[in-house]
Design a protein that fits this description.
Helices cover 0% and strands 45% of the residues. By secondary structure, the protein is an all-beta fold. A hairpin with a 4-residue loop joins β29 and β30.
């Protein structure tokens, strides 16, 4: 069965580029599974105690800021020397990466379903009413209702806004006037995970997670160019075979690495449209990569680092078991995780040992750390933003 594409015009040129189970699935519908419904309650599982460590990295808070509390899947856009971040009240704020000064602020709606996407000029988010809202700085340009729920942050590039819906359909809109340019529907999976997926770009190819596959899509026409598989899930039922790609992805030039939910981690060459390696490992959070290493934690928060070119295991660490780690951030000086108690952990690249630890607030880290230049931004559930520098 081939995918269906409805074209609504080609638009402008595209420069180099970003718990509920329905018990009955009717034709054309997709059951939605919340990630937390797959697991028993972890309230009685105590997090591993924090270990003592020898400080080998100087990390400090450069500035602090605040947005409203974070009660949705947060994603922070880092582009053009600014962090663009949203709070639960629907207010989107752009902050200067070096100082934390507010560059602009705009109210997009009463509340958001997902984080914000931005290319530095346009910003896009989806409200709890499933309304896609696009602004140019502090000016709202247009609003448009999306018929299928969206929990993945929109991706903005080439004067287009790309939306990945809960059933992993992709829609493209003109960023300036909201014209719908095309939509791409692929053969649906029996179940779809209620967790943010992956959408990015490499040169003139839009990259989208659809089930356990990373798809390369023509951003002008919405046609499928290639598919590369991260996981070949096995199981006795559809829940066990659920293996949607979950964000964030790791990247080094043309190499993109991703997690297939509770089944595998792997890397794809986006120029060739083919898998480089995959490794079977459980887990629910995304990964981070550079040219040397790809890092992720499994469902019990055991951390693994693989060589990005080969997939060989570099090291593993079980010192943070059951601490509900965020997705990681790999930098040239350390590997950074946040946890549910608000601690930020800095690990050595060579062995995964703790070399620094900072405390934010006790509400917990809400998303993967995000880097822009020499600044790493940490966001907590209470809406506090901490900009960190490593020396």
């Amino acid at each position: 069965m081939s995918g269906g594409v409805r074209s609504v015009g080609t638009g402008r040129s595209f420069p180099a580029l970003r718990p509920l189970i329905r018990t009955v699935v009717v034709a054309g519908a997709v059951a939605v599974l919340g990630a937390c419904s797959l697991f028993s309650s972890s309230k009685d599982t105590k997090p591993a105690p924090l270990e003592t460590f020898t400080t080998a990295l100087n990390a400090r808070v450069a500035w602090e800021a605040r947005v409203d509390s974070v009660k949705f899947p947060l994603s922070v856009a880092a582009v053009n020397n600014q962090f663009v971040v949203a709070g639960s009240d629907g207010v989107v704020t752009a902050l200067a990466a070096d100082t934390g000064n507010v560059l602009w602020r705009v109210e997009m709606g009463k509340g958001l379903n997902a984080g914000v996407g931005s290319d530095g000029r346009f910003a896009a988010a989806v409200t709890r009413d499933n309304e896609l809202v696009v602004s140019e700085g502090a000016k709202i340009l247009w609003r448009k209702t999306v018929t299928v729920p969206v929990i993945t942050s929109p991706f903005v590039a080439g004067e287009r806004v790309f939306v990945l819906t809960l059933d992993r359909m992709v829609q493209a809109y003109d960023a300036q006037d909201g014209r719908k340019l095309w939509e791409l529907r692929r053969p649906g999976e029996p179940l779809t995970l209620q967790q943010p997926g992956v959408i990015a770009a490499h040169q003139n190819t839009l990259l989208v997670g659809q089930g356990p596959r990373l798809a390369g899509v023509d951003p002008l026409r919405g046609t499928l160019q290639w598919e590369a598989t991260i996981s070949n899930p096995r199981g006795t039922n559809e829940v066990e075979r659920l293996a949607d790609l979950v964000g964030p992805m790791g990247r080094d030039n043309a190499i993109f690495c991703a997690r297939a939910f509770q089944s595998a981690v792997g890397c794809i060459n986006a120029e060739r449209g083919s898998a480089i390696w995959t490794r079977s490992i459980g887990g629910t959070r995304g990964v981070s990569s550079d040219a040397t290493m790809t890092v992720a934690a499994d469902a019990s928060d055991r951390i693994s680092a693989w060589g990005t070119p080969t997939g060989d295991v570099l090291w593993t660490s079980d010192q943070f078991l059951n601490r509900k780690l965020s997705a990681p951030l790999v930098t040239e000086k350390s590997v950074i995780f946040g946890d549910s108690e608000g601690y930020v952990h800095f690990l050595s690249r060579d062995k995964g040992q703790t070399i620094q630890r900072l405390s934010t607030d006790s509400s917990g880290v809400a998303a993967a750390p995000v880097r822009l230049g020499d600044v790493v931004l940490i966001a907590t559930r209470s809406g506090k933003l901490y900009a960190l520098r490593q020396n």
